[in-house]
């Protein structure tokens, strides 16, 4: 508990988490407002439409998470931390836990805020949370944010430099997984197993309920969440192993 408190204090004494949280919520909620106002009056929006901006929110959350590690390497405070707590794995797990919990809260605020705005703008449409799939589509955003933050902490630990870590994360999240589909023959098959595509499968539910424009995956809805969580845990374990073997 002491390590968690220390990591919480270190995180919240800087401005970047507050700005990142605000931007993530603003993007997610703002896109819901755009979707609700841009559609013609004859068309209806769905619960999934209100969450159209969550992918941009994920990108911002990963920036927040990566900076929580790389900033310490930049200013050398990570050395003091590792001297105070020689077990580096405990430090990184505590940091990942604190950042993941914060990301979970931000994700839930953003997702339910986006849904509420869509419902307020188009109250006559089918935006009410009536089924378990609707609830997962909204409440699951925070869970995906949390595991995405763990991935970003792991990448930040491996790379240690803010510019490199942020560039890699943003390029991967916003471009790489989509571009993989362009590889002849094997591209679509590889894309099915890309972690953020699989996370979208968790949020979207069955293929029939997601519609033609949403990603495919070979796993079930809850299996997709387990896969995404497993990727995050494995990457964090690799990062811890690397951190133990090299100088801070």
From TrEMBL:
Species per Swiss-Prot/TrEMBL record: Amycolatopsis dendrobii
Database matches in PANTHER family: INTEGRAL MEMBRANE PROTEIN-RELATED, MEMBRANE PROTEIN
Superkingdom of origin organism: Bacteria
Transmembrane segments: 18-40, 52-71, 92-115, 135-159, 166-187, 225-243
Keyword list, A-Z: Membrane, Transmembrane, Transmembrane helix
Protein name: ABC transporter permease
């Amino acid at each position: 508990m002491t390590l968690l408190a220390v990591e919480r204090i270190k995180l919240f004494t800087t401005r970047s988490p507050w700005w990142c949280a605000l931007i993530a919520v603003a993007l997610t909620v703002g896109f819901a407002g755009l979707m609700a106002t841009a559609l013609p009056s004859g068309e209806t929006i769905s619960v999934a439409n209100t969450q159209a901006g969550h992918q941009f929110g994920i990108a911002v959350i990963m920036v927040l998470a990566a900076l929580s590690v790389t900033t310490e390497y930049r200013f050398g405070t990570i050395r003091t931390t590792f001297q105070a707590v020689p077990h580096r794995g405990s430090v990184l797990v505590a940091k990942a836990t604190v950042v993941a919990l914060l990301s979970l809260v931000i994700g839930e605020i953003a997702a339910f805020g986006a849904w509420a705005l869509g419902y307020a703008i188009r109250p006559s449409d089918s935006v009410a949370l009536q089924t378990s799939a609707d609830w997962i589509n909204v409440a699951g955003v925070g869970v995906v944010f949390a595991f995405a933050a763990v991935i970003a902490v792991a990448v930040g630990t491996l790379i240690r430099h803010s510019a490199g870590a942020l560039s890699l994360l943003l390029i991967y999240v916003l471009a790489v997984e989509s571009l993989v589909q362009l590889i002849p023959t094997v591209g679509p098959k590889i894309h099915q197993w890309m972690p953020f595509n699989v996370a979208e499968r968790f949020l979207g539910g069955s293929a029939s309920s997601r519609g033609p424009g949403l990603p495919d995956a070979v796993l079930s809805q809850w299996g997709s969440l387990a896969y995404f969580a497993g990727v995050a845990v494995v990457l964090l374990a690799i990062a811890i192993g690397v951190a133990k073997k090299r100088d801070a």
